[in-house]
Write a structure and sequence with these properties.
With 332 residues, this protein is an all-alpha fold. The protein has 16 helices and 2 strands. α1 crosses α6 and α14 runs antiparallel to α15. GO terms for molecular function: DNA binding.
Length: 332
């Protein structure tokens, strides 16, 4: 029997194998539930700025919009009241994904279904996907497991879980940005990890500059730093350019991504390249930390897990298809 988790994984595999049917770029990445919610929040903030002049949004409004968006996209929105400015938010949400070269799980699910790419035992109902993305299904599955016993996880266990999730998110975000340089959500996660002095102000300045130039945030940062490196600090921009205050941090970030891209270009063996990239990211994240630091241990665990998954994916591809017929580049 195929589990629901396996069905979701099969959706993603269909997308990877048949990417030309979904997108014009093989570097298009999948936007999962957490990224979908973040993209929606940013889109709502943009719409609020247009309508009310305030680039903020309340959590209750985000959750209301999130619930309606999921039901709407899955065709399950009967007897629901449409939130204020929903049409504008939905348009901004899809525009954000398009700019970031991303597709969300619902888009992939609907495309796979319409093209008949799913076997009978792999078909997912709209209600099931709704429950999965909203987290209801995970909670239901845990109700029958040891994890759901009345014994509460102690504070130490909660902290360990939080650090583990953060470590994996940081490592995955570096990998995601390496594959898809337009992924602004991944960049937001790692712009200041480790600390580069690039806080909220730096990200906001980058975002505004990228919108003015109609380019991704990463391309904006790269363009800014390249101009400085080629022509000197004074030639990069006017004295009043807000990005001038973040030259050091942005240079550190861009040059590190350059280092990862060099590995992709120079190491032809994908297994070795994947391992070397993960090792480089690991050393970057734990630099300056003590060996007993919980974050260091969490990063080590995340890297080991991802290294194994990458090697399993490569082995699986080699068993079924030769590198020349996968339709996926070695870099991907």
């Amino acid at each position: 029997m195929v589990t629901f988790q396996q069905k979701i994984l099969h959706l993603v595999k269909c997308f990877r194998r048949q990417w030309p049917l979904f997108s014009n770029s093989e570097r298009t990445t999948v936007c999962g539930a957490d990224c979908m919610l973040m993209a929606l929040q940013l889109s709502m903030a943009e719409v609020n700025k247009q309508h009310h002049g305030d680039f903020t949004v309340s959590l209750s409004d985000v959750l209301e919009m999130w619930n309606y968006l999921l039901h709407d996209k899955l065709g399950l929105y009967e007897n629901m009241n449409e939130p204020e400015n929903y049409a504008d938010v939905k348009k901004a949400y899809h525009a954000f994904l398009a700019r970031s070269n991303m597709l969300d799980l619902i888009d992939i699910y609907q495309k796979c279904s319409s093209l008949g790419l799913l076997a009978e035992d792999e078909i997912i109902s709209p209600v099931q996907l709704l429950e999965f993305i909203s987290g209801v299904m995970n909670a239901q599955e845990n109700n029958g497991s040891i994890l759901s016993t009345p014994i509460q996880i102690n504070r130490q266990g909660q902290e360990h879980m939080k650090v583990t999730i953060l470590a994996k998110k940081f490592v995955c975000s570096y990998l995601s940005l390496l594959v898809n340089s337009k992924d602004d959500l991944a960049l937001a996660h790692i712009l200041n990890v480790p600390d580069r002095g690039l806080g909220r102000e730096a990200f906001t300045n980058l975002k505004h500059a990228s919108q003015e130039r109609k380019m991704s945030i990463f391309l904006m940062a790269t363009s800014f730093i390249r101009t400085i490196e080629l022509g000197g600090r004074d030639s990069a921009s006017s004295m009043y350019d807000p990005l001038r205050a973040h030259v050091k941090g942005l240079s550190n970030f861009v040059n590190f991504i350059d280092k990862l891209q060099e590995i992709v270009g120079e190491v032809l063996n994908t297994r070795i390249a994947g391992g070397r990239i993960l090792s480089t990211v690991k050393m970057h994240l734990i630099k300056g930390r003590s060996n007993g630091d919980p974050f260091c241990e969490a990063v080590e665990e995340a890297v080991q897990d991802l290294d194994l998954k990458i090697k399993n994916i490569i082995d699986s591809q080699q068993e079924t298809l030769t590198a020349s017929t996968t339709g996926v580049s070695p870099a991907r």
